[in-house]
DNA sequence: GATGAATGAGACTTCATTCAT
DNA sequence: AATGAATGAAGTCTCATTCAT
């Protein structure tokens, strides 16, 4: 089935992309309570244009989150093709957490992914879930990750760790060691 | 050092306590964007009274956080007296995380504790740091907690895990397993 | 039963009255689509003050209508005490229609009265209904008004005629003659 | 006198007619505050097309009114040929009022007719005036309608009664009796 | 001529904060 | 000290109108 939405005019498509891009940056800097006006201003468009593309501030936020999820799923897919499943999984986890500080509210995006699977069936959320699950299962089969956790636990930990990492005042080495703790916890208990 | 603030009139003292109590509940229920007006209403005082005690909404939020910290430090002190240092530490950690959901934004309070040490030297923050550090060091000396982390890492993990736990839509058993991962990560590596 | 709303502070009462007064004039001049901002400006208060007294524009409009109804009911009561029931009724009807031009949307207030009796049971609407009904019944008993109509028909005609009269471009004598037609129609058919 | 406007391209003519048709329905349903955008959407054209045909929302509204007037004038003309002048007049009056509910704001169209004679000399308005006047005069000559009123009074009453009838919450039988009152008022006084 | 994206003034509403009572 | 009315900046959203495609 083909969607019946005709493709946007080129200028509109450009504006939409620009808005999404700017919005991501603005929300990263000031949190999700940043005003729609500021997004419009920094994108160089009128406030009405924002509204046309995203009828509600919530819609704009959701679009930003979805865009992020899409990129994260892509990254997971890329890593899934690597030779070492364990390394692939831990790399993905660590990368996400390390990139969190520069994108405030990434954790919300992730949380949204974990949640709405039950409510709004969104293709992107499904794709993200599939990509991460694949990464996880391969690592578990390879014995690199403990077997008693699933997608939900991984997301919860990812959300948590990302959130912790968003607080820029924590020193980088503290972040590293805290992350190491979580990663160690994800490994199977040796000599258990 | 003695503060030069004269003691509050008895009704004022009562109002202040009541406000703090109500504010904690309100912010827990609706997040920190709940209105000052609602706090006043539910405390049964005029809005002017809130601002007399806490000249700024930020001041009110901080006071709530400090009150929480004080209670947490007390709890840490109580546990520090128990016989098993390892169990004391893990109990403290788990208790805090499990109680997070019912106090929205607790993580912010904790984050604030980690932070402001550099800015505002607050006696309560210092006390909290001392209490938790004691708990940690005893557990480490007893070999129950890995030795390569300190107060900062623990707080970061606590903030993270609490935040993850605040999202009520995650199932309790998922929360438990995610918490278990972090706790396991905190233990020394066996057979290393 | 006493309402549990404590009386307004004197300055608030003054402002409320002023706002109602100004709002009535503004809506009369520009129709009900006049902005709340303009009401605030002409009342010499901040926009927030309007909101405090009338949380919604709809609330403000309703308050204006209710105030009008109250005055109309009072006028009906005053006339009900006059010696000639027929004259009382026709005077009331004519007065209302003649005063309509200077209060745009009076008809809406009246329509509201006719309507909401079924929905929102408002004391003022009930009072208005009672007052006008009394006036009507006395005139009918005196043989001055045809017997086959009731309150509902009178209100409908009043609303209609008032609306017609609101269009200021119609010459006064045309208005008079049109009103005369309606009044004649209300009289019992002679020699029927 | 010939207008120097070149004839519209066939698709443009079709669009114009469609727009007028849709606009009448939309304004009837939602009142004149319905958005121009909705008219465009339901007509299946771009918003730009609406503004090309009617440079202003006011222009669109006026065009709708004019179209209505034209149809009303036609109806008046048709009735003017019937045998009974009195019945023709009353039928016309009653028909208009009865059809008012389904065309919200018809009264405004009529009011516009009464008015703009002085401002914009529109052929259609003149035609309407002539048609209704003819209907009225014939009925008066036949003794079916009182002689002391003219076109202006009839329009005023028509506008009034139509407005009253537009309020859908009034029961149909109430409407009927109210209309009967006006019609009776239009008849010559018997036994005067 | 048709299209629909962009515009931006302006409407309503919220809320932290001030200040007269 | 307490009160709560007043304030007004700021936020979200709407919509008539313009203009590049």
What does this structure look like?
4 copies of one chain form a homotetramer. Chain A is mainly alpha-helical. Helices cover 71% and strands 0% of the residues of chain A. Chain A has 9 helices and no strands. The mean pLDDT of chain A is 86. Chains in contact: A-B, C-D. At the A-B interface, helix 6, helix 8 and helix 9 of A face helix 6, helix 8 and helix 9 of B. The first copy, chain A, binds a DNA duplex (21 and 21 nucleotides) through helix 1 and helix 3.
Characterize the quaternary organization of these chains: homotetramer
CATH architecture of the domain at 82-186 in chain A: Orthogonal Bundle
- How many DSSP H or I helices of chain A? 9
Largest interface, Cβ cutoff 8 Å: A-B, 38 and 37 residues
Shape of chain A: globular
**Overall radius of gyration of chain A:** 18 Å
H/E order of the elements of chain A?
HHHHHHHHH
Sheet with the most strands of chain A? none
Task: Write down the overall mean pLDDT of chain A.
Answer: 86
For this structure, what is the CATH homologous superfamily of the domain at 82-186 in chain A?
Answer: Tetracycline Repressor, domain 2
What is the topological layout?
The structure is a homotetramer.
Chain A (H helix, E strand, L loop, with lengths): L9 H21 L5 H8 L3 H7 L3 H24 L4 H15 L6 H11 L6 H19 L9 H16 L5 H15 L6
Helix pairs in contact in A: 1-2, 1-4, 4-5, 4-6, 4-7, 5-7, 5-8, 6-8, 8-9
The first copy, chain A, binds a DNA duplex (21 and 21 nucleotides) through helix 1 and helix 3.
